[in-house]
Every structure is written in structure tokens, then in C-alpha cells.
Amino acid sequence: MTEQFFSPCPRGLEIPLSEELKALGAEGIHITEGGVHFSGPGSLSYRVNLHSRTASRVLWRVAKARYTTEQDIYDTVHALPWKDWFDESLTIRVNMAAIKCPLRSLDFATLKIKDAICDKFREITGERPSVNTHAPDIRIHAFLDELQMSLYVDTSGDALFKRGVRQYTNIAPLRENLAAGILMLSGWKPGTPLLDPMCGSGTFLIEAAQMSLNIAPGIGRHFAFEKLHTFNEEKWQAMRAEAIAAQKPVTALPVYGSDLYGEELKAARLNLENAGLLEAVTLKQANVLEINAPADHGVLVANLPYGERMGELDEMRVLYPQLGDVLKQRFKGWNAYLLTADLAMPKSIRLSVSRKTPLFNGALECRLFEYKIVAGSNRK
């Protein structure tokens, strides 16, 4: 039976996510701002949760209907076979998003959805699920536009960027699915030298190592679909076993990380160790202005500080031209991808941008700037 799904992702990563979904067997792929609609068998949600590096969640659409009033929403939700999907002993949370919604109160509409679910359970079992806004067993997502409501059951649980391996973070952490998406946007492929000279807690390094060793990003965690009555344990265990069998042994990779601060490097080391990837990555403490290229070609990627990790913004704008000099002098033959929320950075670094991509790290608007470092041609 074909089911309808929607996977949100960091804005700017819709195309890499759509390519992932296609490779995982999804059909009916439709890109929208902030995510991708797709269809397939119910077990496709297992595969996407397990293997997608860029999705934030996998939402299973259980209803789509026109509405005029809050009562219309209640009636649509109440008519659904909730007891067929999960037990009243589980906790729930309802999340609401809307565009051009004519209703006066989204909070009231959210309450009507919760009431409809609880009333349906009470009618059948005499009991109702409890609400847990912090760590619910089942999340229900509603989206209202001008005319229609789409209702989804979240098959993921915790957001998919929570891989379960990064235990230590810095002040300005980069979400794992954004880091993976940036690697994809850069064109980096396993086997190509990769350097993050401001590695912080090691997010780029972990994602690159997992991609190189074919380690499924979700292999170390649990998902909400395991709590649903529709869950097929046999299919899921076969899928996990297939993913584990496809992993490559951990060996030294051309993946390099450095950071000016010992505490940051310690966090990266602990996270890599927790992920079982410490042997795969080369780490060292170094000032970004004093490093040399570890190979004659490769990809340099960095989440640039913008006043949060290394001081105020004025200090950053002193660093940028020096960083431009380092790239020009020591990284000929490399492509550099610099992520920053400081949109004035390109004027300071004084290199010609070959591409810029708008991205969002959570709610923070950023740009990914691409610099192709070619001898004698990049200095403005």
C-alpha cells in the first residue's frame, strides 16, 4: 500500500534531500520550500529514517482535508483510526504550523486536534493518552494553509540530526544534517581529502567519516515508528542488518580537523571516540592562519565564527583577509566552502566567490560561500 510522506530539512538542502530520497526508492517526489513530499510503502519510512543524512524528520500523512472552522478540523481528526496506530498508554504532542490560515487562534486549533484524538480513544477504551510536550512517544504535526489541513504522524521521534554520537558541543553547534548537506553541496566524495580547520566539536569530520565508511546515520538510535502498531519488526531488523553488513572497517581516512582551542579539539576527539571513528580522522591543535594543506588538492570546509566562538564581529573582520591570504598562498588546487551568518564576510576575505548558497542553521540565516583556489586568479 502506497503511503504519503513529507520530510522537512534545513532550508537550502531540498535538492540534496530529494536526491537521497530518490536513491532510497521514494516515488512521487515533490520539492517545496523547507522539505520534500514523497510516496512509497510504509517501510520506506524506516529506510529514510535510517539512511537519510539531510532529512530533519519523516512525517507520515494520515489526513488531508478542507476546513472552514475549528469544528471541521476536530471532525476530520476524530474520524481517524488512532487506536489502530498506537496505544492510549503512549504520550502525545501536537505541533502546528500554518500559512495564510483564516482561523483566529492556532493554539485553539491545536487544542481541538488534541481533544479529537483523546476523545476518540476515550470512546473506544475509556482511557485517553497523556500529553507530554517535552519527550512524547508520538508527535502529531498539523499544517494549515488557506483551505486545507494536512495531518501527519511523526515516524522519527527525536529530530534526525540527533544521530546519538555527538555528546559534546560548542557554543555555536552545527546541526549534523546541515553539515552532511554542505558536504553534498560541495561535491566532496569519500576518498577526496577533506579539511576542517575550525572543527569545533567535529561535526563535519564525523559526517564525512560516516559517509566514507558507509555508516548509516541512524544506525545507533531508535525511532518513533517502532512504537506504532503498524511497525514490522522483521522488516526493520533485516534493514538494520543490511546496513551493518554494508559498513566498511574503520581505517585512516584523508579527513583532517584542527582548531585553535584545546577544549574544542577535546570535544571533537571525545565525539569521534564515541562514534568509534577516532582512528579514521587526523586531529591537531593549530591556528587556522598557520596551517598547510594536507594534500595537493581537496575540499576545505568551515563553519566560520561570527562573534560567538572567538570574540566580537570586528575581530572576525580582521581575521577574514588573513584567512584569504592563507587560502591563496597554501591551498592552490583546493575548493573552500565557508559557512557564515556574517553576510559581509566576502568583502573582507577579498577572494572571488564562485557560488553562494543560502542556508539555515536552525533559525539562523547563513550563506555557504564557495571559493575555487586557483593560482594567480582569485585575489580581488
Quick structural summary:
The protein is α/β, with parallel strands linked by helices and 380 residues long. The protein is 32% helix and 24% strand. The chain folds into two domains: 2-154, VC0802-like (2-Layer Sandwich); 176-213 and 248-372, Rossmann fold, CATH 3.40.50.
Task: Provide structural commentary.
This protein is of the alpha/beta class and 380 residues long. It has two domains: 2-154, VC0802-like, CATH 3.30.2130.30; 176-213 and 248-372, Vaccinia Virus protein VP39 (Rossmann fold), CATH 3.40.50. Helices cover 32% and strands 24% of the residues. The strands form two sheets. A seven-stranded mixed β-sheet has the order 2-3-1-4-7-6-5. The protein has a seven-stranded mixed β-sheet with strand order 10-9-8-11-12-14-13, with helices on one face. Strand 2 (27-32) and strand 3 form a beta hairpin. Helix 3 (70-78) runs parallel beside helix 5 and helix 6 (176-186) packs across helix 7 (203-212). The chain starts with a strand and ends in an 8-residue tail after the last strand. The model has no long low-confidence stretch (mean pLDDT 94).
